[in-house]
Amino acid sequence: MKTNEQLCAVVNLDESESKLMPLTKRRALAALPFGSRYRLIDFPLSSLYSAEVNSVALFVRGSARALLDHVRSGYPWGMESTVGGGLFIHAGAEFKEALEKLEPDQISSYYQDQIDFVRHSKKEYVVVMGSKMLCNVDLKAVLRSHIANEADITVVYKNVTREFCLPDSIANCLTFEVEGESKLADLLPACEIPKKETKLAVGMGIAIMKTDKFIELTNEAANNRIKGDINVLIKHSLKKNTVHGYEYTGYLKNIETISSYYEANMDLLDEDNYNALFYRSQPVITKVKNGAPTYYSKEAVITNSQFASDCVIDGIVEDSIVFRKVTIEKTAIVRHSLIMQGSKIAEGAELDYVILDKGVKIGPGVKLKGTKKNPLVVEKNREINVEKGVEK
């Protein structure tokens, strides 16, 4: 049986965004631009495309305009409306919940919409995932493992160093009943794993289960007012279910802070990381935007950088990621930076460890400097000039 006849997907984009401000001020985390031409949502949607899943629901809180503009009908990922399929977008859940007056036995629309979608999909299995774990997962392989193990639930994890998890990270770490086997004993915060354990099996917020099991877990979460990603729901019901882990060995980054977002982009300048994310057996697909090739003048000096289309480059660019329609004028210097779509950097400006959001204009002679661990972020559409030696 084809995967799209077995599997539907709930993509839960109710993800913590506070540590990514101001980049998430007007966009969902899933809509963050990435790697000069992608957005974070492209990666889960591409994994679903490779698994031939065409019945997908996105659940979004907060600002959804940028995300909706990007995914639209889901056509690039094969999710445009078909018989038994389609891309279904649920936004504004927080507003609906605030206005709801629930009867004693009634659950909130946020949970009910997920249950209704899964029921109406008429698929045997559901995969639950988000966008903050940047990866390229083979969901067909996860489903095969789930069926072979006769598990109630299968969660995807990766063995990482302890430094991967922030001290206050809510990411749950898997422990197993028997070392070297896949059956889970518990899910614990990283801080509760003994310090002697240098490697942690971090849950990636991706799980596969039968649709009936998903409905059961969701009803239980709603009735007990349990909030959090799928790992939280699974931990709550672990004693009643057989849960197995599926080890992912590809590239992974948890996008939860400005620093981790910056590092993930910079990782693409390393060929091994780039190949691990993009050149697996599965393609990474994004919305097509046609444009002219980027122009590099004779004065341009480029070192270890990536560029999208429609740029005009006259200056010096080193170890940087440059998005579409960016202009970098003569004598401007850009190092270790992310320059998003439509930004303009004037002559004599110098940027080092800087993230420019979309449409930023940097005037002549402006000097901006952050650090590798704390890059300087310039908010969308700002204009910065130097007058009498003072930056504005």
TrEMBL record:
State the Gene Ontology terms under molecular function.
glucose-1-phosphate adenylyltransferase activity
Q: Where is the Nucleotidyl transferase domain?
A: 18-163
Alphabetically, which GO biological process terms does the record hold?
glycogen biosynthetic process
Record bears the keyword Coiled coil: no
Q: Where is the Glucose-1-phosphate adenylyltransferase/Bifunctional protein GlmU-like C-terminal hexapeptide domain?
A: 298-367
What protein name is recorded for this chain?
Glucose-1-phosphate adenylyltransferase
Q: Which Pfam families match?
A: Hexapep_GlmU, NTP_transferase
Q: Which family does it belong to?
A: Belongs to the bacterial/plant glucose-1-phosphate adenylyltransferase family.
Protein keywords: Glycogen biosynthesis, Nucleotidyltransferase, Transferase
**Whose protein is this, by species?**
Carnobacterium alterfunditum
- Could you confirm whether the keyword Cell cycle appears in this record? no
Which NCBIfam families does the record cross-reference, listed alphabetically?
glgD
The record's listing under PANTHER family reads: GLUCOSE-1-PHOSPHATE ADENYLYLTRANSFERASE-RELATED (PTHR43523), GLYCOGEN BIOSYNTHESIS PROTEIN GLGD (PTHR43523:SF6)
